[in-house]
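Database export, one record per block. Field names are fixed; values are copied verbatim from the stored entry.
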Amino acid sequence: MSSDQALLTVSQMNAADRLAIALGTPGVVLMENAGASVAREITRRWSPRAVAVLCGPGNNGGDGFVVARHLAAAGWQVRLALLGARDALKGDAAYHAQLWTGSVEPLTCDVLEGAALVVDALFGSGLTRALEGAVAEVLAAAATRAPVVAVDVPSGVMGDSGVTLGAVPAALTVTFFRKKPGHLLLPGRTLCGEVVVTEIGTPDAVLDQIAPQTFENDPALWLDVLPRPEQAGHKYTRGHALIWGGYPMTGAARMAARAAARIGAGLTTIAVPQEALPIYAAALTSIMAQPVATTQEFTDLLADTRLSGFLIGPGAGVNAATKARALAMLGTGRAVVLDADALSVFQDDPAQLEHAIKGACVMTPHDGEFARLFDASGDKLARARKAARRCGAVVVLKGADTVIAAPDGRAIINSNAPATLATAGAGDVLSGIVLGLLTQGTDPFLAAAAAVWLHGAAAQSFGVGLIAEDLPDLLPGVLRQIHGPG
């Protein structure tokens, strides 16, 4: 996968620093480059003004000393406060502290007096304990007085999970080489403000040894496998999607079907209860409605090998019939998307679901549905990974920071979903996009990632006032933007 979208854990970033040093870039140079890049990003956004630089007792604090030195050299009025004693600093941080010729104040709220900008270089992404004492007091005061610029992460945000241990919001976060999961996972993402990644001299080659398994969602990860119509193709080569249509909740399946068709499925059929046929037939044109009156008719329908992908869940109902239909779809060994009610029906026996998965399968739960089936402890990334590994399916754990996890440990975090997607039916559209890509033969993990990103991009292109029905018809415009009109 594209190394540009790689996300590094705290331990992996530490390894990247060690490897860079081993390859010939001294630690003091990495720290110099890091601090200088923070100062550069600050001067790009703000004119010279009074700034308070808050330094911690480790390498993050060392970066802060470099920031202070560069801002002072650029004519800024700089006050620097240090948590702890200057002579207690070690290694690269001690080296750069000695290059600072200004005064070093104790970490108290006094240093904020008159400050129009605050640099938070107290603790980096490896912090594991809650902020307290002077640190918590000074940061809380800083957040009410001036914009805060965070070095690496806002102090108190855990780099691997985005969990906050008392962090205050930053207007800008400058991190180095690659982002960390905590820059994208909530609540960390909202606390970081604008995130800028700067290069500090770490060669990309170190990623070959680190072998990251987590990535930020971006077309660069999946654009090469995104299906495109072929000149010699026909509707069946583009796949035939089958959706179970619920009753009386008919809108969910209809929106999913439109999404599957818009993303490129050659044919889309909704299998519906006999009594629901008039509703579906009146509302659909290019999408077919197939009445199913008995279990045998449903079994016979699934036997059609031209059907290349199935979706069940939207509007299906939490009942024994939904479970039976889901199991029958999984039993074909063909691609299946399970959403909503088709997940909740297994809450009393998750193992039954796990044992039934025979082929490509994508599950798209929100947090509530996820908690009914899987271990809900731990951070979002860890939970999604464990669930995918356990059930052997791709798990799309939905939310503003959707995580897509594969059984082999790979994971993608999505960051383009606007708040307007918090509307009824948006998840049904997402499941339909996943289905449409699976029916065309797209790898399940990449299909899920592409669907989530396209879903977010479609919502972004509309703006405020979005309702779920808008989303399928926005997909062609997004597709044109990323790979042209063909």
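Remark 1: The CA atoms of residues 48 and 76 lie 5 Å apart.
Remark 2: The mean pLDDT is 96.
End of record.
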